[in-house]
Specification:
The chain has seven helices and eight strands. The protein is α/β, with parallel strands linked by helices and about 180 residues long. About 30% of the residues lie in helices and about 25% in strands. Strands 1, 2, 3, 6, 7 and 8 form a six-stranded mixed beta sheet that branches. Helix 3 (about 80-90) links the parallel strand 4 and strand 5 (about 95-100).
Length: about 180
C-alpha cells in the first residue's frame, strides 16, 4: 500500500534522507538541495517580518530596519530565518533569543516575545487567524525564499509520490495551504 510520510527537518537532513532512501520527496530550500536532484515544483515568496498582533511593530504595521534594534529578535541556528535576518537587521544588531524548533519560534512569536522573519508557508494558519501579523520594512527589500519539491537523481517515484507531485503542480499555493 502506498503512503506518504512527512518529515520536518533542515534541508541537509532531508537530502540525507533522500540519499538513504528513507523518503522519496523533499520540500526544501532550493539553495541547499542536491544540485543534481530533479526539481518537480518550486515556490518563491518573500520572507516576512512577523510579530504578534499585540506587538508594537504589528500595531504600527511598518518600520525601518533600524527600529528592529529596540525589539527582541528571535532567530534559529540555520535556515531561512537566520539567512533572512542577516539581510534585514542592521549590522551589529544580534538576535536575543535563538530557538532550534519551528514550534518554539511560533509560540514565542504568538506570545509577543519578539519579532523574526519566516516564510508565510511556515505560519499560514497564524496569519489567517490574525495571531501573527506581517510588518512592512520601509527601507529594506524583503529577501525571497525559494523552495522546491525534489527527489533523488536516478530514482523512480512510487505511484503515491507521483500522484502527490501531480496534485502539487495542479494546485495554487493558496489552495495547498488552505487544505492543510
Amino acid at each position: 500500500e502506498d503512503h506518504a510520510r512527512v518529515f520536518t527537518q533542515l534541508s541537509p537532513s532531508l537530502m540525507q534522507s533522500l540519499l538513504d532512501g528513507v523518503i522519496e520527496l523533499a520540500l526544501c530550500a532550493l539553495a541547499r538541495a542536491e544540485p543534481r536532484a530533479p526539481v518537480h515544483w518550486t515556490y518563491t515568496a518573500p520572507l516576512l517580518l512577523l510579530a504578534a498582533a499585540s506587538h508594537p511593530l504589528a500595531r504600527a504595521g511598518e518600520c525601518e530596519s533600524a527600529d528592529l534594534a529596540r525589539h527582541t529578535i528571535l532567530s534559529t541556528q540555520a535556515g531561512p530565518t537566520r539567512w533572512g535576518l542577516s539581510k534585514i537587521v542592521p549590522v551589529g544588531v544580534e538576535a536575543r533569543i535563538e530557538a532550534t524548533a519551528g514550534e518554539v519560534m511560533r509560540e514565542l512569536l504568538i506570545r509577543g516575545v519578539g519579532v523574526t522573519v519566516l516564510p508565510a508557508i511556515a505560519v499560514w494558519e497564524e496569519l489567517k487567524r490574525g495571531s501573527l501579523v506581517s510588518v512592512a520594512i520601509r527601507d529594506v527589500e524583503s529577501p525571497t525564499y525559494d523552495i522546491g519539491l525534489v527527489s533523488w537523481p536516478g530514482r523512480a517515484l512510487s505511484a503515491a509520490a507521483t500522484a502527490l507531485v501531480g496534485l502539487i503542480r495542479e494546485s495554487t499555493m493558496q489552495d495547498l495551504l488552505d487544505s492543510v
